[in-house]
Amino acid sequence: MTDAQHLLTDEAIQHFITDGYMLVHTDFNEPVHQRIYDTIEDVFEKEGNVGNNILPRVPEIARIFAHAKMRGALTSLLGPDYLLNPHRHCHLNPPGSKGQTWHKDCYVFDHNMRQPRFHWLLALYYPQDTSEDMGPTGILPGVQNWETISDNNPAECNETPLPLTGPAGTVALVHFDAWHRAMPNLSDKKRYMLKFQFARMQRPSAPTWNCRSTDWAPDDAHREVSLDVWNWLCGKETTTASAVGDKTQLLDRLETGNETERLRAAYTLGSSGTETVEDLLAALGREALAVEDRVEAKTPDNAHGTNPTALRAAQALVAAGPGALPQLITALSDEHWLVRTAIADVLATLGPIAADAVPALSQCLSDEHWWVRRGAAEALGRIGAAAHPALPALIETVHDEDRRVRRATTLALAQLGTYADGLETALCAILNDEDRYNRFHAGTALRRIDHPKTREAVLDALFTARWCPITTPENTF
């Protein structure tokens, strides 16, 4: 249970929405960070970088994320049942390094669309005092929702980074889509940074921080987008059916404007409710045709070709809210796979208020395109309790030939948290999946579905796969 005194304030949440980061200091009455640093040094010297196994190899790291300040911040931003992702990495930035170029991280080889309504966070932990000359992570505040920055070649970009620095125990919580890079290490000291990832499991229904007012205060450069995210976090319906002014001009800016103009046009058009839905669906069709050949291209904002920014017309449809549902459900049968994928992502972002789409999304689980099937499974999981009629179809989809569809389906079953006949058999099969992250989500689903059969299955798997943190090449038994 998170102590209310460690939850964030309205001002802290609004700063995170506008700038895309915050710093948390985890303090202890004992040298926890020094012990972690020393153990990491020993592991790197004798074993190299152990990748995802850094947490079981250095289990004291878990104390950082169990710290009351961390639990309070993560609960405030992601809700009380947030998930620690199994992907984690210890980044060593040695003396003399030139650092990295600007980029956005991928979603662990999954095909999430990047949306301003964030469901994932990066947690960057420094076990040592970190100053600017030691090559900390640098970010670009306020442009996390942009697809491009000053140059398409990140090596030619001229932006000045904001260095994320602090004493040992500092954790930077960063919007997952933030532009960032390791800065050059100009010192004679090693800089370790442990990157962890956390994810939201349920759509917010009310503020999960120390909220005093649900009014938006900052006057930032992307107010329309920020206000949409704020209202979503507050559990508000965001559609206000406000007049949009010159609709033709806004639609033109949506398709041809610069980053700021396109974002502003999307959320202004969306704020009109149902008035512009047909225009936005038409714009979505044009946008899909224009980008389908490069939606999986490897670019600085999409390094693995797996996580494109959601189409701007789709973001406008999210802002339009539940009034757009009838047209969105119809669009799930559009002839273009990218339109169907984008609509499934819109419905996933809307969450429980998209409950009327459950039958159509269930049909999409058998779509010919894997990305549509993946998006439909994600949407059903985000919709929650109203998607329980889709359980038989989801259980069948657990066996999909595509690993990305299997992953989204097992995560959806974890979010639904409801037992159904055959569920434990299907999930147990995924405990031996070729994809390590699918195995994790299957175990998460078995754990969250509180049923005797699922409890037994997950405990059996846990003891079979048990990791011993003191077994090393020098101490094998």
CATH-assigned fold name of the largest domain? Jelly Rolls
User: What string, H for helix and E for strand, traces the elements in order?
Assistant: HEHHHHEEEEEEEEHHHHHHHHHHHHHH
Poorly predicted runs of 5 or more residues:
none
Query: Percent of residues in helical segments?
Result: 40-55%
Structural category is alpha+beta
Give descriptors for this structure.
477 residues, 3 domains, 6-stranded antiparallel sheet, 3-stranded antiparallel sheet, 42% helix, 9% strand
Summarize the structure in words.
This protein has 477 residues and is of the alpha+beta class. It has three domains: 4-148 and 158-199, Jelly Rolls (Sandwich); 237-331, no CATH class; 338-477, Leucine-rich Repeat Variant, CATH 1.25.10. The chain is built from 19 helices and nine strands. It has helices at 10-19, 32-47, 54-57, 62-66, 68-78, 223-233, 247-256, 259-270, 277-291, 312-320, 325-331, 337-350, 358-364, 370-383, 391-397, 403-416, 423-430, 436-448, 452-464, and strands at 21-25, 83-84, 89-93, 120-125, 137-139, 162-163, 170-175, 180-182, 191-199. The strands form two sheets. Strands 1, 2, 3, 4, 7 and 9 form a six-stranded antiparallel beta sheet that branches. Strands 6-5-8 form a three-stranded antiparallel beta sheet, with no helix packed on it. Helix 13 (358-364) packs antiparallel against helix 14 and helix 14 packs parallel to helix 16 (403-416). The radius of gyration is 22 Å and the shape is globular.
